[in-house]
Amino acid sequence: MESWLRILFLFACLFPAFVECRIRRYNFNVKMKTTTRLCSSKPIATVNGKFPGPTIYAREGDNVLVNVVNHVKYNVSIHWHGVRQLRTGWSDGPAYITQCPIQPGQNYVYNFTITGQRGTLFWHAHILWLRATMHGAIVILPKLGVPYPFPKPDHEAVVILAEWWKSDTEAVINQAIKSGLAPNVSDAHTINGHPGAISNCPSQGGYTLSVDPGKSYMLRVINAALNEELFFKIAGHKMTMVEVDATYVKPFKTDTIIIAPGQTTNVIVKADKGSGKYMVAASPFMDAPIAVDNVTATATLHYSGTLASSVTTLTKTPPKNATTVANNFIDSLRSLNSKKYPAKVPKKVDHSLFFTVGLGVNPCSSCKQGNGSRVVASINNVTFVMPTVAILQAHFFGIKGVYTTDFPQNPPFKFNYTGTPPTNLATMSGTKVYRLPYNATVQLVLQDTGIISPENHPIHLHGFNFFAVGKRIGNFNPKKDPNNFNLINPVERNTIGVPSGGWVAIRFRADNPGVWFMHCHLEIHTTWGLKMAFLVDNGKGPNESLLPPPKDLPKC
């Protein structure tokens, strides 16, 4: 059956008059490159020697083939963040979840089709902390002849926000793991790879977006930072929101967006000032007593005809704890919910889940700096242990002893989640998944806890989009809070922020067979164990079943 499917797909691509189709081929050579930022140099892991990495362009319906060749000393895997990967979980990318990593000197071809999606996503390394410098945009254009549901902009530009450490990021996290404590924060934020001029390195250049007066520009903004949510502003200019996480939203104007690691946001900016230079700023958001990198990244919006020596118009960034600014933006997001782009929110719920997300403390005899303890993170008090064989392979081939299917539907014990924490801060450890039948509808409430500290957690679910139907501060009330859920036009995303000291409720349909990772997109929390996976069984027939693994699937 699989060979016939491939023959039919090849026929469609050879005879596009019958079926619209295109194969997009990319080569990703993973290699080290010495790079200078903040007036110091270090070797970094890159794709094709670029930081940020190359942009993948495709149209809805295209088949994408990316040959990743590993030329570095690290094991490597690449995740195509937000791509649904319908029945192609082997190409999703998280190491030891859907594949064994690509070992040094080896290669692997990621093969997936963009189905029912258009907009901005991104790709990034999904092993160790290589995501710090191995990331890039995925631009999915609508099908030929299909317009945007808003006035077409005159031009487009990718804007990737990230972090930069002067030290080797692998050394940073390894030291933190050894000590049992939190890692050092980054030394700067970047916009398209550049921090902009900062006080201790005034010669450091910044990214420049050149614009023509009167033209409109769609900025595809991506937060590829490891550990920090960011505000994004442009001096003197409003931005019109049109999309988040490759889903259209009801347009609205704003002067500030908030974007968490793993999220993407498309905005349209009208170059309506005639001339001048205007600061573009990315600054941190943190409304909990957690250390962050306070250095604002800057870039320049430069009108054509304006002298380079002209004074730049500055903008004031929000305070780092500007919760109101963040909530005003988040609460304004709504699905387009039009006839062509309906919001298919599940009304009936088959599986109602309640997951706590937060930190904990476990014993660690070797952690001298942590006084014999280690900071960990968990979902429903389970600190996830990465296996040594990929869970998807174990599931497909029936390999025993790799994982268990007893991930708890609710917290193992109840307490005042946003109040006084329990006296025992320890977590249990395990490689546990939650099993779902094909096409089941799921309501998942994600509840932050105040253990050690409340904190905003951007949670990313692989393999699915979901609808954010509710959000509040405090403890979730299962009797009262669902009465206020938005089941008409909630925003559709793949990554959602669990508010500090609060909860968010999401709904999705499990219509994608395979094993799908769910984790905090703050990389330190993922390292500490704030992660789990859903195992979705096959449905009826080949169209509802996971495809067999490719022959070049990496071996552990």
Quick rundown:
The protein has 556 residues and is mainly beta.
Features:
556 residues; mainly beta; six-stranded mixed beta sheet; 5 helices; 39% strand; lignin degradation; signal; copper; Laccase; Cu-oxidase_2nd
Structure description:
It is a single chain. The protein is mostly beta strands and 556 residues long. The chain contains five helices and 33 strands. It has helices at residues 2-14, 169-179, 323-330, 391-397, 523-528; strands at 23-37, 40-47, 56-59, 63-70, 78-81, 107-113, 119-125, 135-141, 155-164, 188-191, 208-211, 216-223, 229-234, 239-244, 247-254, 256-259, 264-270, 277-285, 297-303, 312-313, 351-363, 373-379, 382-384, 428-430, 433-436, 440-448, 457-461, 466-473, 492-493, 495-498, 502-510, 514-520, 531-536. The strands form seven sheets. The chain has a six-stranded mixed beta sheet with strand order 10-9-12-17-14-15, with no helix packed on it. Strands 11, 13, 16, 18, 19 and 20 form a six-stranded mixed beta sheet that branches. It has a six-stranded mixed beta sheet with strand order 22-21-26-31-28-29.
Helix content: under 10%
In whole angstroms, how far apart are the ends?
28 Å
For the biggest β-sheet, the strand order reads 10-9-12-17-14-15
Overall body shape: globular
Mean of all residue-level pLDDT scores: 95
Radius of gyration: 23 Å
Largest sheet: 6 strands, mixed
Structural class: mainly beta
Number of strands: 33
Strand content: 35-45%
The number of helices is 5
Spans of at least 5 consecutive residues whose pLDDT stays below 50 are 1-19
Domain Plastocyanin-like: 30-143, 157-305, 407-539
Cofactor: Cu cation
Signal peptide: 1-21
Family: Belongs to the multicopper oxidase family.
